[in-house]
Structures are given as structure tokens and as C-alpha cells.
Amino acid sequence: MEWVNETLVREFVFLGFSSLAGLQRLLFVVFLLVYMFTLGTNAVIISTIVLDRALHTPMYFFLAGLSCSETCYTFVIVPKMLVDLLAQKKTISFLGCSIQMFSFLFLGCSHSFLLAAMGYDRYVAICNPLWYTVIMGHGMCVGLVAVAYLCGFTIAEIITSLVFHLPFHSSNQLHHFFCDISPVLKVASHHTHFSQFVIIMLCALVLVIPLLLILVSYIHIISAILQFPSTLGRYKAFSTCASHLIIVIVHYDCASFIYLRPKSNYSSSQDALISVSYTILTPLFNPMVYSLRNKEFKSALQRVVGRTISLP
């Protein structure tokens, strides 16, 4: 009798922006413009790095990987969110939700490990400059990116499998605009201890480990820079790390604020609004900081544009 009375969930309903019904068309326009600008800037970054040989260095190789990751990351969430802002029925199938969660986790986790790889690249460049081209060869760069994506894939596969093997009955309303871990766990049956386990695992593997690797790299970097004899040399060395440090701080501030803060302090609608920061605003902010402020990149972009215009 218990099995007959239970309803198996076959789709989920998004309620992330339900409290802002009167603003949904305005939000659609704003988010669409931001999304198109993000895609455009990342496309410019990737194209310039591929087309200009002066940027065929390990640092820009990792930057191209980061831009690809962010482009795919926004593609997983934003188009569906834009459609839902205009739709009356804001639903996603059970399978679609699991695919979205896996893709989001895969790209987000890979992003963290890519930042750690970029930290190691800066460590080698500053602490072992004479061996830099030997250590950071093409094979090493490809290997580090492959390991980053492999770690992201493994973590995403484990967490998604654990979440969607839970029983889902009756309630199918997600107070969010995409299939994030916490809102999906809230509608699952028997998830109290399990949800704590998933969040702890996510934080330990995705936030703590790459952050520790970055901190170790920068401890050695700062120690090496402080030994430089000239102030100009120290300034140039710090400037090569500044963009990476800004991206790391923004990334880990957003992720920690979402996944490490007490859940009882914020309502579900506030959670959804806060999540906009790392799904829309951070991918917009990163390319502007890392490339469009970079003099070397600007020069390369001018060369690529000049060659393109001069083509018959």
C-alpha cells in the first residue's frame, strides 16, 4: 500500500525566480546581454590565443582551457534559465536534471583544478625561470589540463550518482533556477545525513585541495620574489601573478559563500539570487580581468585584427 500511495518524480519544477514574477522579462534582457557579452569575450580570448604565436605559452594555454571551461559552464545553465524566464511551465526532466548537475559539477570542479595548475605554472616561472621551458613543456601542460578535467569528471560522476540514486517521491519543486546539489537534496526522501556528507565531500575535494595547492605555490612565489634585488623586478614578478590571484579570490569567495555558509541563514529565493553571482557574473568578470587588461594580450589582439583586416 505504501508503494501505491507514493508518486515517483519524473520531472522537476524550477521556482528560482517565482518571487520576481513582475521582473522576469527585464531579467531575461539583462541576463541575455551579459551572456552574449561573456560568450563574445571568451571567443575573442580563445581565437586570439590560437591565432597569435606569441601567445603559444603555458600561461595562455591554461587561460584558453579556462575560457573553454567557462563558456561550456555558462552554456549548461544560462540558456535553460533564459527560456524559463519567458515560459509558463518551468520544468526539467529527471534525466535532464541529472545531466545538468553532472555537467555543472564537472566544469566547476575542473575550473578549481585548472586554477591550481595555473598556480603551479606561475611557481615554475618565478622560482625556476631557467628551467621553465623544460619543465612546462607541451606534454606537461596537456597532462595538467587532462588531470584537472579527469578530477572534475570523477568527482561529478560520484556526486551525481549518489544524489540521483536517492528516492524522489511526491515533491518535485526546486527553489532554484538549475539543478544544484542543495535544492535537489531538499526534495529527496531521507537525505539529512547524506546531504551533509555530499557537501563535505564537495568542499574537501573541490575547494580545499586545489586551494591548498595554490597556497603552497604562492608561499614559494612570495619567498622567491622577496629575494629579488630590485624593486622593479619584484613589481614585474607580482604583476604576472596579479590576475591569477584575483580570479582565485573571486572563485573561492563565491564557492565558499554558497557551499560553506550555514544554510539556515538564507531563504531559498535568496539562495537563487546569490547563485547568479557564480553562474553569470563571475564568468563575465574573469575574461575581463585575465586578458582584456593584459598588455601582451591586447598587442596580440591588435595583430590578429590587423592581419584579419588586411586579408584580401
Overview of this structure, please?
Keywords: Cell membrane, G-protein coupled receptor, Glycoprotein, Membrane, Olfaction, Receptor, Sensory transduction, Transducer, Transmembrane, Transmembrane helix. Putative odorant or sperm cell receptor. It is a multi-pass membrane protein. This is Olfactory receptor 10K2. The chain is globular, with a radius of gyration of 22 Å. Helix 4 runs antiparallel to helix 9, helix 6 runs antiparallel to helix 8 (192-226) and helix 9 (231-259) runs antiparallel to helix 10. The protein has one domain (22-310): Rhopdopsin 7-helix transmembrane proteins (Up-down Bundle), CATH 1.20.1070.10. With 312 residues, the chain is an all-alpha fold. It has helices at residues 2-5, 24-51, 58-86, 94-127, 132-135, 138-164, 181-186, 192-226, 231-259, 268-290, 295-310; strands at 11-14, 91-93, 173-174. The chain has a 3-stranded mixed beta sheet.
